[in-house]
Design brief:
Order of helices and strands: HEEEHEHEH
Number of helices: 4
Number of strands: 5
Distance between the termini: 84 Å
Strand order of the largest sheet: 3-2-1-4-5
């Protein structure tokens, strides 16, 4: 007498073991979760908070970032940094062929106001016509804190 599991000698095996596939998928998920935050590049700037509404930005906007050490970066490029000494000539070179002569300035709130004004003056001397300031809005939790 044949057992129900053994079946006919010519029948195909109908069971699929998915445990190894699930193990591989979980390992890949963990690898991607760990590496995804490392792929994001940027400049760590602690922006001041204001309650004004934001403006829409375009992809061709020129962003000038100043970190808390006074390093100046162009367009979130953290590999190339400038000082107040050479930022004017670099801006003049960057804006010589652009028709839209405006920049957005992101300055860390720990940096002195006088330094920010020097950078704005250098931008103006380089031919920039409009300068916008980038800030952040306070979180909901901070605005609803009890006194």
């Amino acid at each position: 007498m044949q057992s129900p599991k053994s079946g006919d000698q010519n029948s195909a095996l109908a069971e699929i073991n998915i445990t190894p596939m699930v193990d591989v998928m979980l390992v890949l998920l963990i690898i991607f979760m760990v590496t995804a935050p490392m792929l994001q590049e940027g400049i760590d700037i602690n922006l001041p908070e204001v309650s004004a509404q934001g403006v829409e930005s375009a992809t061709d906007d020129f962003i000038l970032s100043i970190d808390d050490l006074g390093q100046i970066y162009f367009n979130e490029n953290s590999k190339e940094k400038f000082s107040i000494v050479n930022v004017e000539e670099k801006l003049a070179e960057a804006f010589k062929d652009r028709t839209k002569k405006e920049i957005y300035l992101k300055a860390d709130k720990a940096i002195k106001y006088g330094f920010v004004v020097q950078v704005m003056s250098a931008a103006q001397h380089a031919g920039v016509e409009k300068i916008g300031m980038i800030t952040t809005t306070p979180d909901e939790s901070e605005t609803t804190k009890p006194n």
